[in-house]
C-alpha cells in the first residue's frame, strides 16, 4: 500500500527497445498494490547526456530507474548519476552478464537488442503466421498451392490451432474444412499427397466436442451439426477424399496439438 497519494514513476531505460526491463518491472509490480505507480519506457539510448537528463527527471519524480544497458560507458554513467542524485537504479542485465563472464571466462558482444534481433527466421515465422490466418478454414483456396502443408478434415478436428502452431515453426499452412455438400477446390487435387495431411477423430469424441460447441455459442441441442448420424457421414466422406488425394491420415482423438504437430513435421522432414 502506498504511503500517500503521490504519483510515483519507474523509469525504464535501454539502449535497445527496453522490453526485457519492462517485463521484469511489470512482473514485480503485480506483487504489490501499485495504483500510484506508473512506468515510462525510454529506448534506444545512445549518449551519456541522455542518461544525465533521464536521471535528473527521475530525481524530481521520486521513483527509481530500471535499466538494461549493454554499452559499458552508458552503464558507468548510469551508476555515477545514481550516486550523484541519490536515485536508486536497478541494473537488470548487469549481474547476469557478470556471472556469465566470471563463470565461463567470456566477454559479451555488447550489441543492444540481440534478444529481439529480426533475423531471417523471425521474418519467416511472421510470414507463415500471416499465411495461416489468410488461408484459415478454406478462405483463400487460390493460395493452397503455395502452402508447405494443407490440413484437411471435418469441423472441430483441430485444423486451425494446428495451423497456427506449425506457423510458429515457420511453416506455411492452409487448412480446408471437408463438408459432403461442398465440392473441394480444384487446387487440392493439384497438390502432391505428401503436402496434404488428413485429420480425423473418433465419432463419439467428435460428438462430445461439437455438442459443447453448440452449448458455447447458444445453439439448441440436437442440431444436425452435433448428430451422430451426421458426424459418421462426414467422417466417411472425409476419409474417402483423403484416400483419393493419397495423403497421410492422423487420428487426433485425445492427441495434444504439440503431439499432432510433431507427427506432421516428421512427415515433412
Automatic annotation (TrEMBL):
Its EC number is 2.7.11.32, 2.7.4.27. It is an enzyme of class 2 (transferase). Keywords: Kinase, Nucleotide-binding, Pyruvate, Serine/threonine-protein kinase, Transferase. The keyword Transcription does not apply. InterPro entries: Kinase-pyrophosphorylase, PPDK_reg. GO terms for molecular function: transferase activity. It comes from the Bacteria. It catalyses: N(tele)-phospho-L-histidyl/O-phospho-L-threonyl-[pyruvate, phosphate dikinase] + phosphate + H(+) = N(tele)-phospho-L-histidyl/L-threonyl-[pyruvate, phosphate dikinase] + diphosphate; N(tele)-phospho-L-histidyl/L-threonyl-[pyruvate, phosphate dikinase] + ADP = N(tele)-phospho-L-histidyl/O-phospho-L-threonyl-[pyruvate, phosphate dikinase] + AMP + H(+). ADP binds at residues 153-160. It holds the Pfam family Kinase-PPPase. PANTHER family: PYRUVATE, PHOSPHATE DIKINASE REGULATORY PROTEIN 1, CHLOROPLASTIC. Bifunctional serine/threonine kinase and phosphorylase involved in the regulation of the pyruvate, phosphate dikinase (PPDK) by catalyzing its phosphorylation/dephosphorylation. Belongs to the pyruvate, phosphate/water dikinase regulatory protein family. PDRP subfamily. This is Putative pyruvate, phosphate dikinase regulatory protein. It comes from Paenibacillus konkukensis.
